[in-house]
């Protein structure tokens, strides 16, 4: 089974890094990801610059990304103002985030869960009217830094309400990296039952070294789209101790060796991870494959 990897390093990867890259460097990162085979790229977010200064140049980035018919660029939006900016910038998809718990929703977005559900429905309908795909991410679906465990029933109920916006895709996010494979299977089952026919995506953080195992469990449960970030950079700036996303190169290795092609070029992904590490001034990134290498030696 082919698995699509959505490259999120330009947005979710960079938003939690203290180093603010130049617009030119962000565009080069995106170009390298596309050259490595990424066909869906979460490129930018249209949020308040005072809250996430790393994303302040979203319009400038979108104005210069390499445009190709086989590449789709995703912009994160949280309200209609963000959507208007995204549509004007020429995104191919928008993604909205609804948090699974009330406390984290208030801390992360300054709004209640109910308010964000309403915002999502409004965003989705307007995006669809403009001919743009709209997906929604359930953040903290596996656990909350403030409220603890999140039950599959809670996530299932939330997914049932998200269906009102007719999502093109629902993503389940382990925002703080607490999930394990048994949870993955339970959540996928709950959301599949609550939102039948809606494609699922999964987004894992490797805070506790479970991300690759969780990703494989998601694929075994029927998920065919996974988020990843070159080098394993990133995280959520509003979640304490939420370290980086699963590394694209590590996930690619696990998927390819498990019989799930991704269309990514492992060598170019590893090279891109090394490049972004240099740009961020990091001698060592979380991703392991850049140090250990592919096995067998030639990934082609």
UniProtKB/TrEMBL annotation:
Would the keyword Acetylation turn up in this protein's UniProt record? no
In the record, biological process GO terms are: ketone body biosynthetic process; L-leucine catabolic process
Q: Which UniProt keywords apply?
A: Lyase, Metal-binding
Top-level taxon of origin = Bacteria
One GO MF term: hydroxymethylglutaryl-CoA lyase activity
Q: Which residue ranges does the record assign to the Pyruvate carboxyltransferase domain?
A: 3-270
**Family statement:** Belongs to the HMG-CoA lyase family.
Q: What is the protein name given in its UniProt record?
A: Hydroxymethylglutaryl-CoA lyase
UniProt organism field: Micromonospora craniellae
